[in-house]
Specification:
Length: about 80
């Protein structure tokens, strides 16, 4: 589910079918301008996603945890300035 009511997009993966999650996240990231970001909400540690970001966009993103479980993780992902 995308929430754009606030100034920053939120992607809540708990509401998205698993096969659609990473494509949506990367599509959203690729539309960002430098310095812009979005909030990712997940029900588990998003290590696989971080690994993919490091492969696909090395040095082009910032990853900032805002909540680290155990039930919910929130990560702000932004395009590096």
């Amino acid at each position: 589910m995308l929430d754009t009511a606030t100034s920053e997009t939120t992607i809540d993966t708990r509401q998205i079918p698993p096969l659609q999650r990473h494509p949506l996240i990367f599509s959203t990231f690729e539309q960002l301008q430098p310095g812009e970001g979005f909030l990712l909400v997940n029900n588990h540690e998003p290590w696989p996603l971080l690994y993919q970001f490091n492969i696909r966009h090395p040095d082009a993103f910032e990853w900032e945890y805002q909540a680290e479980g155990p039930e919910i993780w929130r990560v702000r992902i932004s395009r590096a300035a």
